Amino acid sequence: MPELPEVEVVRRGLADHVVGRRITGVDVLHQRPVRRHLAGPDHFASALTDRTVLGAHRRGKYLWLPLDSGDALLGHLGMSGQLLVQPVGAPDERHLRVRFGLAGDGPERELRFVDQRMFGGLSVSAQGAELPQEIAHIARDPLDPLFDEEQFVHRVRRRSSGIKRILLDQTVVSGVGNIYADEALWRAGVHGDRLGAKLTARQVREVLSGAREVMRAALHEGGTSFDALYVNVNGESGYFDRSLAVYGRAGQPCRRCGAQVERVAFMNRSSHFCPVCQRPPRAPRGATASPARGSGRRH
DNA sequence: GTATGTACCTGTTTGC
DNA sequence: TGCAAACAGGTACATA
Question: Which end of chain A has fewer CB atoms within 10 angstroms, the N or the C?
Fold first, then answer.
């Protein structure tokens, strides 16, 4: 599942293998991945054909490729999207959605957008040189040199939502998904249900620091991979999943204290945490204790 | 402006 | 064995 490190790995691959090449043709094999291109698949294809890719940029989990037309190809991998560079004639992937012909130095290639679950998407943005207007609302990510840490602390502490939900809000901080939110919170020793407004500035900084640590580590190892749904442009998976502390480790011992990692439902997905290292907030007056969470103390 | 819940998707796993 | 339900989760959107 692509989060910031995975998307950055893909961006680097695009910078190496696609920038400087000309798009010779576009084949939209499924309409859903271009649903955000409101002018339709034919317009999407014609706006890209015979255009040269000038760069490969990223904001959070969004990628965009400025073109010599002044437009940009804007993309998001969603949950299962892949951008692969393949030789012409390579067998089609099972979930191949959009194919781009590429000409330039060396043999002809294809850029392929493969997406099993089709949460991802591609569109052509009219703004190529700068941040596309479609993603102007996406905040900078924690690894961005221009990320404003003080503003982040301020915004988190103004919110009365749980810190995990805030971390997943891409308008507050980008690039954090379910996996790295759990990992960052574990590193900071903060439970995801703790309200932003109830955290100290120091705790918010520790969560941010945890996010940076886990993202840097993942980036170093080429991204997280669980089920072959995430691969880089060469089709290679990352190996970071071996280093995850809580995500996907329910019932296994916490790597720090040995307590059993817990998994609870959260926003139609899962949260993983150590009930000892990350003490849940006290239930509001009148609320009953959640049996899934227990007392928070297991030793 | 903020908080919260849900639709969108498909392949795999789980349970009956 | 076969079917149905649950599950995975990022984003946009609707509602309060």
Answer: C
